[in-house]
Amino acid sequence: MEIIIHGDKIKVTSAMKDYIEDKLGKLEKYLEKSENVRVNVIVKVNNHTQCVEVTIPLKSVILRTEDAHQDFYAAVDKAIDKLERQIRKNKTRIMSRQTKVVDYGFAVDEIEEFEEPEESKIVKRKKVEMKPMDEEEAILQMELLGHQFYVYKDIDTLATNVVYKRNDGNYGVIESE
């Protein structure tokens, strides 16, 4: 497993890197072909809060979590625990999808957060290479990311669609023409 660690407004020390690598090492048992997995970790500081963001792009899903705490090591522990719960909770769904899903291989290129003048409201941008998928796969991706919506390219029409979680617990789809 290749682990890439970046610091945002903080210098990541070797002790911090070792701790993150040690904690992420226990996730290898859940990942097939872990030598091909590239893990992106961003360590941030907001006021006195340490924030750790971990993203693991796999073949058909993206595992992601973000956690903040006053103590850096507690933030890492909480983030890794969340990832482990995500993997265990969705392992059967992920494994069943891997048998019938073509390699979608999402690639997320994230632009680092940056400070903007106060009049601007955009605080983060993400670029996502969209591969065709069905509604079920889009819902799985949305749930794994813990988001309320997910933008995807429909496998049949190749149109850009949005799946979202409704207040009643069901899902909705917005289709483009």
Main sheet makeup: 4 strands, mixed
Structural class label = alpha+beta
Please estimate the helix content.
25-40%
What's the CATH first level of the largest domain?
A: Alpha Beta
Q: In terms of per-residue confidence, which ranges show pLDDT below 50 for 5 or more consecutive residues?
A: 100-117
Strand order across the largest sheet: 1-2-3-4
* Number of helical segments with 4 or more residues: 3
Number of domains: 2
DSSP strand count: 10
CATH superfamily of the largest domain: Ribosome hibernation promotion factor-like
Query: Can you tell me the CATH topology of the largest domain?
Result: Double Stranded RNA Binding Domain
Q: Please give the radius of gyration in angstroms.
A: 17 Å
Please tell me the overall pLDDT. Answer: 79
Beta-sheet strand percentage? 25-35%
The CATH architecture assignment of the largest domain turns out to be 2-Layer Sandwich
Distance between the termini: 41 Å
Shape: globular
What is the string of SSEs from the N terminus onward?
EHEEEHEEEHEEE
Summarize the helices and strands and which ones pair or pack.
Blueprint: E1 2-8, H1 14-25, E2 38-46, E3 49-57, E4 62-69, H2 72-100, E5 108-110, E6 126-128, E7 132-133, H3 135-145, E8 149-154, E9 160-165, E10 171-175
Parallel strand pairs: 1-2, 7-8
Antiparallel strand pairs: 2-3, 3-4, 5-6, 8-9, 9-10
Helix pairs in contact: 1-2
